[in-house]
Amino acid sequence: MIWDPKQETISGEALTTLQLSRLQNTIASVYETVPFYRALFERQGLHPSQVQSIEDLQHFPFTTKDALRDNYPFGLFARPMKDIVRVHASSGTTGKPIVAGYTSNDLAIWSELVARITTMAGVGAEDIAQVCFSYGLFTGGFGLHYGLEKVGATVVPASVGNTEKQIMLLRDFGVTVLIATPSYALYLAEVAVDMGIDPCSLPLRVGMFGSEPWTDQMRLEIEARLGLTATDNYGLTEIIGPGVAGECSARAGLHINEDHFLVEVIDPQTGHVVADGTEGELVFTTLTKEGFPVIRYRSKDISVLTRARCACGRTTARMRRVTGRTDDMLIINGVNVFPSQIESVLMEIKEVAPHYLIVVDKKKRYLDDLEVRVELNRNTFTGSFRDLEEVERKISSKLASVLTVSARVKLVEPKSLERTMGKAKRVIDRRT
Ligand code: DLL
What we know:
This protein is 31% helix and 24% strand. By secondary structure, it is α/β, with parallel strands linked by helices. Bound molecules: 5'-O-[hydroxy(phenylacetyl)phosphoryl]adenosine.
């Protein structure tokens, strides 16, 4: 089923016309109402009247996280505070958060967009959905909540924490849909086992996971442990929160709600727009946001776009799942290493569990030292101390061939690495 067939199966030509008129309105609106954008455009000799085609957007400057932080908290809002009915903020751990403001119209659109991705995931009025995202400044809880209500699902706003109780609710309420980060889904499975409950015996049918990178291998692991179909959905506070893009039943990329968000992919080094099919950084421009419109926001998320026809009938562009960010790339002795590459290797080793931590440090003052700590899987590892060394060696050599740098592997006790309720922390870089 498609939530909004008119918009989600729109023809390319109609979409371009709609996007252009919305883009012209947005650029004109920020020019008039947000001093930051007016100054930015004027510095480059740009005027809203110069937007005559979608491609003209490429002449406009990017907006970065720093610009958003510099205007903390409400400096980039395009509407007076009396029109802003809600704020959310990013979960950044350092510095000031990014604050997003929504008018009531923005909230109505937001729940529509989340209703779309919910329907894409195959979730509807028959479902009971437990939202294990925090309800607060984070966009995950409230964002998913209202979209799920919109499709008529029964929402269990469990929020985060108290994992044993979460499992009791999943079982007693007959919850069919789990909404969480992929890492929290795995943790739920682990705690269920500790409670003597087989997670696959729960009535869970679909998982709608997002908010952090996860690999295809991790998806298989979650599906096997929880006995559900795991779908991915993507979004960011700066643009709206969840509801930017989601997977349909084909699970061949995430459909972007392009009538509300204009997406470009750029080469992160040069800033030039690259063609569909080429990997790069996602850049978003909001097309209908009233409270907090954003022009050419550099997300730092790495993906690839395709406009090939999807089996589900939707015509919107799809983005490959985000497995990394330009700023999570580690440079180890000059070689680029992405945490997702390490995850992919670990997920293929049956003796270890899907819980790992990457620790980077300096050795002998100059050399970078990469250590991968990963938990042993007691169900599949029954060997001796010597066998442990053998497993470590096996993982090290696989990592070396994939990463082309050497990594020390340290097998650690099951459940000894810290679990998080929200986004998992996978990297500690002690060099900085
Ligand atoms: O994480 C919004 C969200 C909530 C999306 C719930 C999906 C579900 P932020 O806290 O602002 O917003 O973090 C945004 O998280 O730029 C990506 O780096 C990452 N991210 C979000 N979804 C995915 C995903 C929410 N499905 C940042 N896959 C983004 C990979 C994701 N990374």
